[in-house]
Amino acid sequence: MVADPVNSVHLKYASLGVLVLQTTSLVLTMRYSRTLKEDGPRYLASSAVVSAEVLKMFACSVLVLMENNFSLQGMKRLMKEQVVKKPMETLKLAVPAGIYTLQNNLLYVALSNLDAATYQVTYQLKILTTALFSVSMLGRRLSLFQWLSLLLLMAGVTLVQWPTDSEGNTEEQKVLTAGSRFVGVMAVLMACISSGFAGVYFEKILKETKQSVWVRNIQLGLFSFVFGFVGMMVYDGHGVWQAGMFQGYNFVTWVVVVLQAVGGLVVAVVIKYADNILKGFATSLSIIASTLISYFLLEDFNPTG
């Protein structure tokens, strides 16, 4: 399919707008789900990652079926030609799949230890890593204003980590809070590096081939599911055997899973019709919404000067 230029532009900005909404909703819902007080066990982050991959693959399969006019034979033939008969092309997706799986797990760790606003600002450092990987891997050139904006971004990330003394806290509480924040920040930094590399690598694959973006996502999802399932059994296998994969799941958990799956699809469309750097700046808009909601509704963030 050759996309009409006008439709491509509309799709580009529509997908960017949806991505801003999805990012804001996911961060706040995920943070809420990880801090929600419940009687039973908390849901396993690794399980939520696997569930999101399964849901994403199902959605992509439906979209591929729609592209083939709901012909199961046509879809089967397409999958055989594009996936089975091109094993090396399919294997290329193993690299970003493994990194995305690691990144998704790191985000749960980060949001278990940081408030939504601090997480959002710090996670925007992925714009810098994405820009550096875009320059080195894709040969993209950035203007002076783009480099200046990246430097301002780094300044913002530094300032948001500036230590503040909370009145009434004991020394033990301060140490625990500092340790928790350190774990959260390190998780975000690792996620930023992995996000930058995986995003640019996936963009390179998408733009070098004429394959359907949904077929590519099915390939990516298959590897992500395998990596995620193995990771879940290695790190949370005992809990899974004892209480099941879906222990601690509730309505909020399923909302997080759905939002994460939708995010994967929207990101793929954005990368296909825009680029990773523009995607990064678009998601930065969600910081404002996240900060306001984190301050007024979740009440877990008090902005300082």
UniProtKB/TrEMBL annotation:
<feature type="transmembrane region" description="Helical">
    <location>
        <begin position="144"/>
        <end position="162"/>
    </location>
</feature>
<protein>
    <submittedName>
        <fullName>Solute carrier family 35 member A3b</fullName>
    </submittedName>
</protein>
<dbReference type="InterPro" id="IPR037185">
    <property type="entry name" value="EmrE-like"/>
</dbReference>
<dbReference type="InterPro" id="IPR007271">
    <property type="entry name" value="Nuc_sug_transpt"/>
</dbReference>
<keyword id="KW-1133">Transmembrane helix</keyword>
<feature type="transmembrane region" description="Helical">
    <location>
        <begin position="44"/>
        <end position="66"/>
    </location>
</feature>
<keyword id="KW-0812">Transmembrane</keyword>
<dbReference type="GO" id="GO:0000139">
    <property type="term" value="C:Golgi membrane"/>
</dbReference>
<dbReference type="GO" id="GO:0015165">
    <property type="term" value="F:pyrimidine nucleotide-sugar transmembrane transporter activity"/>
</dbReference>
<feature type="transmembrane region" description="Helical">
    <location>
        <begin position="182"/>
        <end position="202"/>
    </location>
</feature>
<feature type="transmembrane region" description="Helical">
    <location>
        <begin position="251"/>
        <end position="271"/>
    </location>
</feature>
<keyword id="KW-0813">Transport</keyword>
<feature type="transmembrane region" description="Helical">
    <location>
        <begin position="278"/>
        <end position="298"/>
    </location>
</feature>
<feature type="transmembrane region" description="Helical">
    <location>
        <begin position="12"/>
        <end position="32"/>
    </location>
</feature>
<feature type="transmembrane region" description="Helical">
    <location>
        <begin position="214"/>
        <end position="235"/>
    </location>
</feature>
<dbReference type="Pfam" id="PF04142">
    <property type="entry name" value="Nuc_sug_transp"/>
</dbReference>
<comment type="similarity">
    <text>Belongs to the nucleotide-sugar transporter family. SLC35A subfamily.</text>
</comment>
<keyword id="KW-0762">Sugar transport</keyword>
<keyword id="KW-0472">Membrane</keyword>
<keyword id="KW-0333">Golgi apparatus</keyword>
